[in-house]
Specification:
With 308 residues, this protein is α/β, with parallel strands linked by helices. 49% of the residues lie in helices and 11% in strands.
Length: 308
Amino acid sequence: MTALSRRIGWIGAGGRLGFSMSKRLIEAGCNVSVYNRTRSKVEPLAELGATVVDSPRDLADREIVFSTVSASDDLIAVTEGPNGVLSGDSSPDLLVDCSTVSEEASAQVREAAARRGTEMLSAPVSGSAKVVAAGKLTIVASGPREAFDAAEPYLAAVGSGVTYVGEGELARMVKICHNLMLGVVSQCLAEITVLAEKGGVTRHDFLKFLNTSVVGSMFTRYKTPAFVNLDMTPTFTPVLLRKDLDLGLDAARRLDVPLPVTAVTREILNEAVELGHTDCDFAILLAMQAEASGLKIEPEDVTVDDGL
C-alpha cells in the first residue's frame, strides 16, 4: 500500500479549517469523501474530486476518517449519534479528530470507537485556513503509536510539522495549553499596541519593530495585518476562543494550577461575546482595548507582511 492510498473520510469539511485541510488531501491525490452539516459548503470540494455524502454514517466504509468540529458535543454527535460514523454495521479502521475538545469527550469517543474495533488518534492543530494554505499548519497527536504511524503521511500532507506526544489524550492537553497562550498573547498584543498608538506611534511601525525583535513570533506577524488594517474577517471567533479558555480553566481547577492571567483574559473575551462580537475575528480585542483606553482607531491602509 502506498503512503496516500487509503480511502479517506472527512467530517466537518465545510468549516474554515476542515475545508482547507481536506482540500490539501484531495490535491495530494487522495480518495476523499466529505460530510458537512451544511452541504453547500462542501460542494466546491466535489468540483475538485471529493465525494459528498449525506451523513457521517456514510463514511463508515472509509479506512481513515478525520473530523474537524466546533465543540465536544459535536464530536460525540458525529461519532456516537444516530447517524454517527460509529452507528452503523461497519466502522472505519481509524478516527483522527483534529478538533479542540475536552479530554473527557475525546476519551468517551475513544472508548466507543474501541468497542467497534476502531482506533482513534487525537490530533488537534495550530493554525487557520490561511496557515493551512501556506503549508505551515502544525499538528500534535496522541493515541496508539500504530495509529499515529498510519495517519502520519496524511497529517504531513496537510501541515508542516506533526508532533507525537504519547498515548491517550495528551494531545488535548497540549492544544488546550496552546490556546490559553493564544488568548493571553492576543490580549497582551492588543494592550501594548494601543499603548504605543496612544503614545504617538503608528500601529504598523510598532508592530514592524516588535515582529523583528526577540519577542516577535509567527503569531504576532500573522496577526499584524488584522491589527494594522482592522480586518476582522474571522479566522477564529471570540466564542470559540472563550470555549477553549474555559476548557483550560477547567483543567487548571482539576489539576490545582492557578491561572490568574488566563482567568482575566477569559472575562475580557466573555465581555466581547456579550457585546455581540460573535462572528468576527478575535482581533476585536484590539478595538475593545482602544475603546477602553479612549482611543479612536482607524484602518491604516498599509500593506504589511503576515509572515506567511
